[in-house]
Design goal:
It is a single chain. About 5% of the residues have low confidence. With 173 residues, the protein is an all-alpha fold. The protein contains two helices and no strands.
Length: 173
Amino acid sequence: MPREKPDASDKLAPVSKGSDHEYSMDVSTPSAKRKSPITPTKPSVPPNKVIVSNKNDAELSTLTAAIEKLTARFDEFEGRLRDNSVILANLTKITEVNAAEIKDCKTKLRDLEKEVPALVKENADLKERVLEIERYKRRWNLKMQGLKEKHEENTRKEVLDILAKIAPQHAQS
């Protein structure tokens, strides 16, 4: 509490032995007692005592149970987080391996794409050669319609007989 300024009327009076004021007390003798204390006293209210009642016990046990549940949930989430971290690390490794394999596949694909035009050209050349060989072989093949094939027949003689019937002047005797 701030001190008030003294008035001019509150001048100190000379110290007298019978005065009731604190500033006028005789302090020369050690046995002199003050009537009022120098410092203000604390109020005479007793300090707050913690009174544990049944209601507070129930609240305390409820709070303790809630804290234990939260701790268990936190531990569970911590375990899940740890598991997820391991899974994430494994996925990262797998992703790196897959990325390396994809890079290798792309390199191989580029190499194969360079080979494809040469193979296409070679294939076309081979097809042309096969067709040419087949044409050459078929030149000497003669297919006679209406003539039944027999086992172990002399096809030369059969053809010459048919030609002799068609063009007798060219037939050799």
